[in-house]
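Action item from last week, closing it out:
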Amino acid sequence: MSLRQINLARLDQYVMNEIPIHFIRLSDMKLVGRDDVKKHFRSSVSEFSFCDRVHFVTYATLSHRWLDEGEPTYEEMKMGTAAGPGYEKLVAFCKKAKEYYVEFVWSDTCCIDKNSSTELDESIRSMFRWYQNSFVCIVHMAQSKTITDIQEDEWIRRGWTLQELLAPHRIKFFNARWMPMTSNENDKAPNMKPDWSYDILRALEAATRIPRNVLTSGLVKHPMRVDERIAWAARRETTWVEDAAYSLMGIFNVSLQIAYGEGRDRAFCRLIEAIMLTGDPSVLNWNNLNPVSHYSGSCAFPRLPRCFEFCGNRQFDFDRPLEMTITSRGLRIPLVILPLIVHNHQDTILSLRCSFCPTLEIKTCTTSSHVSYQYAFGIVNYSIIGGEMGEVLGIRSRSAGVILSREPNYLPGYQPPSSNDFCGLNFASPPKPALLDWKLVDNYGARLTMVDFPNVPSGHFYLNCEYLQTVYL
């Protein structure tokens, strides 16, 4: 097989798997499919020409705020009957796309056959990648005239536009009148003018709370913790409540089955469950704002992205994925368990101290405390370090963990069975008192608590593995 044949096979595979299913062809404004895209680019393939696929298979994507009504549909574009303000916006987008010398453009309003559940499912799961692989993403800020208007533009507050901002490598912003908002060729490129007091990146950073280096270079070069990424969506809104979860799949590189009608809570819990498999313990760093009462037997799941707002301010480090698994008993998670004792309890403020480190005090706000409960601090950002003498636990001087409690289970009077009826069994006496499983303390603040162990010069210390326990939350 020649190099050109190899590159043609690569082209076919790329087009069939990495770009949208349908496009608008600019030369005749007709809807076309992937086969038409392959035909267009095959003649340009040589033995050397398919190294940079994004710059070879070029297309433009549109990012915009949908109109309440009047957007062109797939059926209208297929029949050539599209008209109205939405179509006028589409035509304006196509005119701007021609300036980038592309033949194909994609818009989420009319390039998805929404009557096909299979195509809709694939489109939603793949959309982040489709924007990422586009040659340019053209953004229409319908409520902005200048850069200073961006912070109040509705585009900033929509759920799907978050991935449309993060995914593309090249992006260009246009105002309400389709005038470019900067003179930059790529509005994601770092601005090198130090005297520019209010450039577009600064406006976007202020409006979205996304660091500028992430806006310019992406999440691959600048990975962010899970809690920080979800917080970017805290104030964003979606028309369909399930989209609050579906619109975040690409940002976390996870895939969910699309099931409109399942409701916001279940969709978001499924997203969190998928993210937990990555092992980032910051997924537990959320505020207790009406959590889902029980998801798969667990109360460790937040209800919506807003639970993560401002949680990124609680900084902690980790270098080991945390194993988190959903079971019929709840979220199974191995934690380093340090016992706590009640130091003081006034109104809803519970003050706890570590029995191994009496100067360490942890306060939480809760109404579900009781003097007979046992308490513990379950550390999540520990390390397991192996050596010739076996494994030990590495504990950071600044540790993140959850506050746990378990209540006694006073058993009724116990009478062992008669030894005459059993042979060879070694009976045991029940524990006094028996204890129920560890549970998360139902507090009003953050699920994760940060503690700073005193006088740890090296920044970490070591414990035996006896303190590592698997709990179900």
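Closing note: The chain has a mean pLDDT of 89.
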